[in-house]
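Review form for a predicted model. The reviewer records the input and the model, then writes brief findings.
Reviewer: anonymous (R2)
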Amino acid sequence: MFTISAFADEIDPDPLKQIDILKSCNVGHIEFRSILGTNVLSLTDLQIQEFKSLLDKHGFKLSAIGSPIGKIKIDEPFEPHLAKFRRAIDLCGVFGTKNIRIFSYYPPDNFDGNWTKWRPEIMNRMTQKCELAAKAGVRLIHENEHSIYGDSPERVADLMATLRKSFSAEVVGAVHDPANFVFCGYDPWQGWLASKPWLVHFHIKDWIADAKHGSLAGEGQGRIPEVIADAVKMGYAGFATMEPHLLGGGPTGGVTGPELFPKAVAAFKAILDKACAKYQ
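Model under review:
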C-alpha cells in the first residue's frame, strides 16, 4: 500500500493554499519542509502550534519532518547541528510522525572528490543521530541528495549497510529519489537496486539529464514506472511523497505551483494504477 504525501511548499508558501490544492488531489499527508518561506526547524513554537491546529482542522497528517539535517559541510561544527536535530525529534512528537528526512553531509571546501578521509566522521555523526533516534522512537530516512556523501548508488549502499549493522529499519532507512540519481549522472536503475534492500520511503520526482526542472513522473529518465512495479512486487508499504520540481528546484526546496501540482499527482497515480498498486 502506497500512501501519497507531498512537499506542500512546492505548491505555495501559504499553508491554506497548500491544503486546498492537496484536498483537490485527495492527498491527506504532508512532508513538512517549510511554510511561509521558513524552514520547519526555524519556525517558532507558536507557528508550529498554529500549523498543527490547521492540519487537525482539515484532517491532515505528516509523512515526515522534511528536515535539512545533514545538509552542512562535514567539517562544520557538529554540536549546533545536533541541537537542530533534537528540535526535529521534538517535532515528531508534536505532529505524531516517526520519520525525519536527513542527509549525509556536503564535502569540505577544496574537496578533491575522494570521500575516504571523511567517511569515518560521516559514519560517526550518523551513528550519533541514530542512537538519539532509537532512544526517541523515531526513524531517520536518508535521501540520496545531490553532492552529499550518499548521492551515489555505491555510497548509499555503504551508508545503509554500515548503519544497519547496529540499527534496525525502525531506526534508519533509505529514501529512493530517482530524479536525484539522474541529476547527479548516475544510472537510476543502479540507484534503485542500491536503495531497494534498505527502502522505507519514496520521493516522487522525475528528471531528464541536464534539464533545469523536473518532469512529470514517467516522462523523465528516472525509470519510475519500472521502480514502482518492482516495489509492488516486493510488497512495499509506506509513503510516496510528491516532490515534482516542475518549475525548478535547489538545495532548499523546489517549485511546482498550484496549477501543475495536481497534474504531477495524476501522473503518479496513473503509474500506480498501471502497476496494480493499492494506494490512498
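Findings: The chain has one domain: 2-274.
Further findings: The mean pLDDT is 98.
Recommendation: see findings above.
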